Amino acid sequence: MQGSHRAAQTGANRVAVVIPDGLRRSTLHASGARVLTEWHTVWRPICGSKPAFGPAVEADLLRTALKFSEGLRGRADRAEHDGGEDSGGGGIAGGSFNIHFDLDGSVPAQAMPAIDAVEAAIEALFADPINITIEISFDDLSGGTLGVTSSPYTHISYSTSRDGLQDDADDTDGLLQRLPSGSSVPVRYNGNNHSITLENRVFWSLANYKATIGAIGGDAGSIIFNDDITWDYDPSNGVVGYSFQDVLAHEVGHALGFTSGADFRDKDLEVMDLFRFQKNDDGHDYNPDSWAEFRVRPRLVSDGAPPGKHITDFIQHTFPMSDGTSHQPSHFDERLNPIGLMDPALSWGETHWPALFNSKDLRVLDAIGWDR
Fold first, then answer.
1. E runs forming strands in 265-329
2. How many CB atoms lie within 10 A of CB 186?
3. pLDDT at site 255
4. Average pLDDT over residues 192-205
5. d(CA 361, CA 341)
6. pTM higher than 0.85, yes or no?
7. What is the DSSP string of 136-152?
8. I need a labelling partner for 335 at 20 to 30 A (CA). Which of 36, 84, 124, 329 fits?
């Protein structure tokens, strides 16, 4: 493992452990160019965990991060040496999207049909010709914590990010052609003032990078479930406890790139933030009312400010987003009637089955580069 862990906390109830992973070679889909990309793995509690932050939860994060990161890095090195899963441009020749859950011996037998069901459901949603692998295991974690999860991330230039999104766009992705031109995108990193940063880089999860930007080896992450939680593996007949299928699919959604730099990064944005704005103008023209304005209005990537005014905006469709005051910004806003599976809280007995991801979840994932 290169470097050392870093705990990055934003707010009283959120924490992330960041472990540097070093450099990896990648082949860009749009140009075929070979580039070096710098990676790090981010470990966080599974969404809905209570408490979401505390000494015991941080200890779980550190322990699992240190335990698993050596193995993840080793597999990344081997995959790269072998040409990666997607050698030859990043696609599977004549293939289709494939998600593989790599299970260890801690996974209970009753969880396996549920894992198979989620795998089949997600594979049916996307057409990107790539393989992604996510490790699944169970462990004895702190009481109230549903589990911990990790995803590798890298950053690349804004212009390369925009080119990848536009090159990967289909006929339904016209908005992508209206992303800001040039080498930077305007961003407000503090919603309490009107300062604008011209940001020249974007962070990507490994799975989203593979689908949109370039061929890269390695696993897309790990999910460790707390074996002390009452899990319901079959939501088709109602849920007693926590719906395992919902939680698994939700965490896969984060691995696919449904995340925000407002969660813990220090003045950096992730790809979903390219569509994140303030919903009202507040004396300034912050909200894009047209495709032309979408090209030039500043994005809002601010933890907690201004409260209640964060949206994902596709012009024809607008979705309220969590602002960081009570839930992680990497989610829709929490509502009594959930906006989608990527809401921040899943209650005891709640399920989105049989759809799991709905049209709103999928609209966001489509915008950040997943083919539908």
1. 276-278, 299-300, 310-313, 318-320
2. 13
3. 97
4. 97
5. 7
6. yes
7. EEEE---TT--EEEEEE
8. 124
CA-based nearest residue to 273, from 188, 153, 372 = 188
Convert 224-268 into a string of H (helix), E (strand) and C (coil). Answer: EEECCCCEECCCECECCCEEHHHHHHHHHHHHCCCCCCCCCCCCC
In the block, residue with structure tokens 């698994």: 248
What is the C-alpha separation between 274 and 181, in angstroms, rounded? 13
Q: Are 103 and 109 in contact (CB under 8 A)?
A: no
Tokens for 268, please give them. Answer: 């950096």
Q: Hey, how many other C-beta atoms are within 10 angstroms of the C-beta on 70?
A: 11
Q: Taking the C-alpha atoms of 147, 152, 155 and 161 in order, what is their torsion angle to the nearest 10 degrees? A: -90
pLDDT digits over 64-116, tens only? 777 766 654 445 444 443 335 443 334 444 469 999 999 999 999 999 999 99
Please name the residues in contact with 342: beta carbons below 8 A apart, sequence gap of 6 or more: 250, 253, 258, 331, 332, 357, 361, 364
For 85-122, the DSSP string reads TTTTTSS-TT---EEEEEE-TTS-GGGHHHHHHHHHHH
Residues in the chain: 372
